[in-house]
């Protein structure tokens, strides 16, 4: 097991390094002279030169990269180009809404997705199974931001049950987290269903039924436990969807989170903030995938020895 | 005692069907896939002939934001332009963005995948690490990041979505190539001295087609949603273009007064994506049950 975790860890380190290089190169990849863009159109040549010196753009790339990564690791993320505030001061307050949104969404979609999948599997071929499958296909095909707009139209504008935008109270998170979790719920339901259907065909399920266990125990204790192994992987993979989705959902519901910050910073060409947010998103995603891999190895010993 | 009946083997049981016929027979059984294919044909016809009742830029200032009525079936927008006409005309734009982006992604991704799967070794490791790196940008964020670098606009959205699709195709085609190259007929071709290039193009590539077609169809749905999402975020089509995503972006400002501006373009995106996804499901079941 230790070896397996170690192998996985060693696997992601080069990826993290390359990803960080790409994100570091960001400021150099934008067409035009970054110092000129950052200094603004009215800047004089002198001002641009000062800006270039300040940003360390005159150093060799390797030195710049070293400084960039040292800064990231020690918490010195540079200053926002738009406001001049330290980047961490801009980013930290934005983390909480995104985190709450992500946790709400993942919790409800895991609970709903697994329950729907199980119900669908044990009623295979019946009307309820059919409805669930149609719902799941639709859930995957829905444009997330449109679902959010529709929910907002119905429940906030027409019925007035929830606030339309902002994050004044926890009830502000209800519609956004339903929106963000809908696609993931559909995915989880689909996988739980197909995995349960496979497992219910196994011999040990027949044995448990034959020895007189109640259907409830057969399903929940024997079948579901084993299908959860597959479901873990799907939940993990969906995290990527969640992060990207938060960008859209936060835009729809005007939630001041990290996703919205990313879009605003791109629009304002606030590249230091863009770099840091992208780095947070990607590293978070890589680490979550690592955790999923490890959990999968814990749950399924076969994987460990491949 | 029960009578045991021996069933006679009929000629039909051993007949090998024409693969195209077999495919058609299996495919026609998938009702949702057939309906989806019909809907996609309908969209293509809309895109080609654009049978819009009004000109998309025709403004009617007496009928601003008016609700759906007999004159304007889907209502009008903030300039009094007919929403239905803009949706119909927008079909061409939305479909061609998706087709172009997915085709470029499929082309580059397949080349990388087939090379990785066939040659193996260092080349394979390099290509697969490249995919890992692209995959470590979660979902749409890769496309957003690319647009952030090369700037907004429809062409750049196409580029971003193409790159976003590359690693998916590479992985699928690689694993397909890996299983095909072990087959006997490949060994036979190689033993009679067929060159690598010819082998790849003539013998291995056709074998990867089922996987390629299924992935292509599935990616169409993703590409349409991605393009609409980027437009919605303000990176894609400008609001003057009759793009479905851009229409939603404008419609958001009128959510309280003109919900029809949101409802219909969104439904159009939803049905289109659903059609591609269901068609992909159907094709996967008929072409290659092993694919996931």
Short description:
Chain A is mostly helical and 306 residues long.
Question: How does this structure look, described?
Answer:
The complex is a heterodimer of chains A (306) and B (292). Chain A has 13 helices and no strands. Chain A has 306 residues and is mainly α. Chain A folds into 2 domains: 23-76, no CATH class; 95-299, MetI-like (MetI-like fold), CATH 1.10.3720. Chain A is flat, with a radius of gyration of 24 Å. The relative contact order of chain A is 0.14. Chain B has one domain: MetI-like fold, CATH 1.10.3720.10. Chain B is built from 11 helices and no strands. Chain B is flat, with a radius of gyration of 24 Å. Chain B starts with 10 loop residues before the first helix and ends in a 5-residue tail after the last helix. In chain B, 45% of the residues are buried. Chain A: Keywords: Cell membrane, Membrane, Transmembrane, Transmembrane helix, Transport. Chain A: It comes from Paramaledivibacter caminithermalis (strain DSM 15212 / CIP 107654 / DViRD3).
Number of strand segments of chain B: 0
User: What is the correct CATH architecture of the largest domain in chain A?
Assistant: Orthogonal Bundle
Overall number of domains of chain B: 1
CATH second-level architecture of chain B: Orthogonal Bundle
* Low-pLDDT ranges of chain A: none
Helix/strand layout:
The complex is a heterodimer of chains A (306) and B (292).
Chain A: H1 2-29, H2 34-39, H3 45-55, H4 61-74, H5 87-122, H6 127-141, H7 144-158, H8 174-199, H9 203-210, H10 215-252, H11 258-267, H12 271-299, H13 301-304
Helix pairs in contact in A: 1-12, 5-6, 5-8, 5-10, 6-8, 7-8, 7-10, 8-10, 9-10, 10-11, 10-12, 11-12
Chain B: H1 11-14, H2 19-29, H3 31-49, H4 83-119, H5 121-135, H6 141-150, H7 154-181, H8 184-191, H9 196-233, H10 244-251, H11 260-287
Helix pairs in contact in B: 3-4, 3-11, 4-5, 4-7, 4-9, 5-7, 6-7, 7-9, 9-10, 9-11, 10-11
């Amino acid at each position: 097991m230790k070896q397996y975790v170690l192998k996985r860890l060693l696997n992601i380190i080069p990826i993290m390094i390359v990803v960080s290089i790409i994100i570091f190169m960001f400021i150099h990849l934008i067409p035009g002279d970054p110092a000129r863009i950052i200094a603004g159109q009215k800047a004089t040549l002198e001002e641009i030169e000062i800006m270039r010196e300040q940003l360390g753009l005159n150093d060799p790339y390797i030195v710049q990269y070293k400084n960039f990564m040292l800064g990231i690791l020690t918490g010195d993320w540079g200053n926002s180009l738009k406001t001049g505030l330290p980047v961490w001061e801009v980013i930290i307050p934005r983390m909480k809404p995104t985190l709450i949104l992500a946790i709400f969404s993942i919790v409800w979609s895991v609970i709903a997705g697994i329950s729907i999948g199980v119900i669908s599997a044990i009623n295979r071929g019946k009307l309820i199974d059919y409805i669930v499958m149609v719902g799941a296909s639709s859930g995957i095909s829905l444009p997330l931001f449109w679902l959010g707009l529709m929910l907002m139209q119905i429940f906030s504008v027409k019925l007035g049950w929830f606030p339309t935008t902002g994050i004044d109270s926890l009830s502000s998170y209800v519609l956004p987290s339903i929106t963000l979790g809908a696609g993931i719920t559909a995915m989880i339901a689909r996988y739980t269903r197909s995995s349960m259907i496979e497992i219910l065909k196994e011999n040990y399920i027949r044995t448990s039924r034959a020895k007189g266990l109640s259907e409830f125990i057969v399903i929940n204790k024997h079948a579901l436990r084993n299908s959860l192994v597959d479901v873990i992987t799907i939940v993990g993979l969906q995290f990527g969807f969640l992060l990207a989705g938060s960008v859209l959902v936060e835009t729809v519901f005007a939630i001041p989170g990290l996703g919205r910050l990313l879009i605003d910073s791109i629009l304002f060409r606030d590249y230091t903030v863009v770099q840091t947010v992208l780095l947070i998103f990607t590293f978070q995603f890589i680490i979550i995938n690592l955790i999923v891999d490890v959990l999968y190895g814990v749950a399924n010993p076969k994987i460990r020895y491949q | 005692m029960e009578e045991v009946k021996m069933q006679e083997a009929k000629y039909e049981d051993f007949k090998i069907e024409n693969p195209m016929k077999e495919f058609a027979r299996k495919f026609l059984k998938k009702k949702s896939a057939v309906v989806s294919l019909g809907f996609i044909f309908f969209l293509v016809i809309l895109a080609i002939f654009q049978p819009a009742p009004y000109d998309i830029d025709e403004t009617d200032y007496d009928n601003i934001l008016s609700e759906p009525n007999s004159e304007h079936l889907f209502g009008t927008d903030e300039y009094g332009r007919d929403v239905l006409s803009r949706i119909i005309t927008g079909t061409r734009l939305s479909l061609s963005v998706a087709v172009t982006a997915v085709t470029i992604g499929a082309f580059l991704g397949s080349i990388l995948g087939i090379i990785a799967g066939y040659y193996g070794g260092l080349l394979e490791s390099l290509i697969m690490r490249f995919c890992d790196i692209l995959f470590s940008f979660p979902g749409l964020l890769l496309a957003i990041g690319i647009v952030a670098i090369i700037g907004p606009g429809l062409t750049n959205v196409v580029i971003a979505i193409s790159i976003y699709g590359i690693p998916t195709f590479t992985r699928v085609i690689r694993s397909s190539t890996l299983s095909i190259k072990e087959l006997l007929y490949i060994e036979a071709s190689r033993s009679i001295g067929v060159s690598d290039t010819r082998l790849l193009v003539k013998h291995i590539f056709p074998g990867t087609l089922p996987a390629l077609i299924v992935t292509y169809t599935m990616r169409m749905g993703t590409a349409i949603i991605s393009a609409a999402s980027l437009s919605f975020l303000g990176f894609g089509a400008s609001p003057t273009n009759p793009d479905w995503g851009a229409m939603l972006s404008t419609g958001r400002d009128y959510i309280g007064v003109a919900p029809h501006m949101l409802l219909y373009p969104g439904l159009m995106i939803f049905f289109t994506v659903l059609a591609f996804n269901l068609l992909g499901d159907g094709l996967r079941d008929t072409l290659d049950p092993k694919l996931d």
